[in-house]
User: Which sequence fits this backbone?
């Protein structure tokens, strides 16, 4: 499970299956933005790869949060403030109308005639930028000039409404509420609800928003693709993130080899998942527990009776439910 952020304010969580291979290891409303597929641009194409990635984050943060500071680059990439200031100067030279400095807030905002230069503005692309960010708990991938062919399978991409994604991200960053039209699968029609968002979560299949529902008076998860609209409520402060008990409670899962497999098969499965004595422990936030169980296909109620298919199982299923609460 990886945690990253833009400007260290809007948190983003990616839920991953623990790795195998012998080791299992204050904006109110944003101005309209011109979003088009960037045409080939020698000025951008000639930039060094690492600089181009930093400028993409700059533009991504500007799009999602509605403002950006040099900390977005210094804290994410570990560069000096002086280098970050140079990067901002490069971006301003590429797109003079895109950045306007807000002296009272001491950050940059999108200019009135903002037009993205490095990004197309597709929400899947913006979220991909967030997913590719380096971090203390994310692997570093060296890009070699030549190497083995690599192919990655991805779930069906859901293209989200850019205005909704920007409103959600800005509300999480600035600590205010949103009014969203949300289509729940428990109701036949969408309804308006007020939310205080705090974290975007990629469950391995789709994007969710962790938020406090003022209608239900509790923290819940909301599928971004099911939001038909999002209206910022900048004058209404959001609920504090530290009140989300399930978010801050860590649960330790004990994942083990299926005991009905023959000894030789148990050994190879244990090696695949980096288990010791046929078991591996995985920590996860209680709020994200259902997603990790589903991703690893170890939900107790959906366990397959064939050990060859199931292969691994949850050794301590009692952590899934607790008195008065079921996932």
Assistant:
């Amino acid at each position: 499970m990886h945690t990253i952020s833009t400007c260290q304010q809007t948190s983003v969580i990616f839920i991953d299956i623990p790795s195998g291979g012998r080791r299992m290891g204050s904006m109110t409303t944003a101005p309209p933005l011109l979003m088009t597929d960037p045409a080939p641009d020698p000025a951008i194409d000639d930039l060094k790869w690492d600089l181009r990635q930093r400028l993409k984050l700059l533009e991504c943060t500007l799009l999602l949060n509605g403002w950006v500071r040099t900390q977005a680059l210094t804290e994410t990439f570990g560069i000096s403030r002086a280098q970050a200031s140079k990067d901002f100067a490069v971006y301003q030279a590429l797109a003079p109308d895109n950045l306007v400095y807000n002296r009272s807030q001491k950050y940059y905002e999108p200019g009135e005639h903002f037009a993205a230069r490095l990004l197309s503005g597709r929400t899947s692309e913006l979220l991909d930028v967030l997913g590719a960010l380096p971090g203390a708990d994310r692997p570093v991938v060296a890009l070699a000039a030549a190497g083995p062919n690599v192919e990655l399978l991805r779930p069906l991409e859901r293209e989200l409404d850019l205005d909704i994604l920007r409103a959600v991200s800005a509300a999480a960053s600035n600590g205010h509420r949103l009014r969203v039209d949300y289509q729940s699968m428990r109701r036949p029609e969408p309804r308006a609800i007020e939310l205080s968002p705090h974290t975007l979560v990629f469950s391995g299949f789709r994007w969710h928003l962790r938020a406090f529902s003022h209608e239900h008076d509790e923290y819940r998860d909301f599928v971004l693709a099911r939001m038909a609209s999002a209206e910022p409520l900048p004058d209404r402060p959001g609920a504090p993130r530290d009140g989300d008990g399930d978010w801050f409670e860590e649960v330790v899962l004990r994942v083990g080899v299926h005991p009905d497999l023959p000894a030789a098969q148990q050994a190879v499965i244990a090696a695949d998942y980096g288990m010791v004595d046929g078991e591996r422990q995985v920590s996860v936030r209680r709020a994200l527990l259902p997603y990790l169980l589903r991703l690893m296909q170890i939900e107790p109620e959906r366990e397959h009776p064939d050990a060859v298919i199931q292969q691994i199982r949850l050794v301590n299923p009692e952590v899934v439910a607790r008195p008065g609460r079921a996932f």
